[in-house]
Amino acid sequence: PHGIYRLRSEDTRGMIIASTVARITKTGEGEFVMPRLYYAIGDVHGHLDKLEYIHAQIKVDAGRRAHRVIHIGDLIDRGPDSKGVVEFLMQGQARGEPWEVVKGNHDTFL
Q1: Distances from the Cα of 106 to the Cα of 31, 53, 72, angstroms
Q2: Which residue has the higher pLDDT, 90 or 10?
Q3: Does this model's pTM top 0.90?
Q4: What are 84's strand-pairing partners?
Q5: How many angstroms separate the CA atoms of 59 and 65, rounded?
Q6: pLDDT digits (tens, 9 = 90+) for 9-64
């Protein structure tokens, strides 16, 4: 009954993958509603500019709808601004942004 999903994946500037997953539920009147959007971002690898870009895209896509952003690891290493990535995420969480952060294998020393 509540098992219909919409999934869209995008490769943004070659590094960050963002997916929108929304659970769609059917109301008693036969309408479909999406109560929340979920975005997953992985493999940032210290590319703050790309992370900021995808967050701007998410803001446009989500609009005023309730949403969560899950950062699924590999935030640091390889790119030019690992410190900036970590600070950006910490500041966003401190502001109350709907963000979750999960460490990946490149993040074990954080």
Answers
A1: 44, 22, 11
A2: 90
A3: no
A4: none
A5: 10
A6: 444 444 444 454 545 555 555 555 555 788 888 888 899 998 998 899 888 888 88
42 token code pair:
């992985």
CB 15 within 8 A of CB 43: yes
Residue appearing with tokens 């929340």 = 36
How far apart are the C-alpha atoms of 27 and 29, rounded to whole Å?
5
Q: Which residue has the tokens 């500041």?
A: 91
Task: Report the amino acid identity of residue 31.
Answer: E
Residue 14, number of CB atoms within 10 A of its CB: 7
Amino acid identity of residue 14, one-letter, is: G
Residue type, 8: R
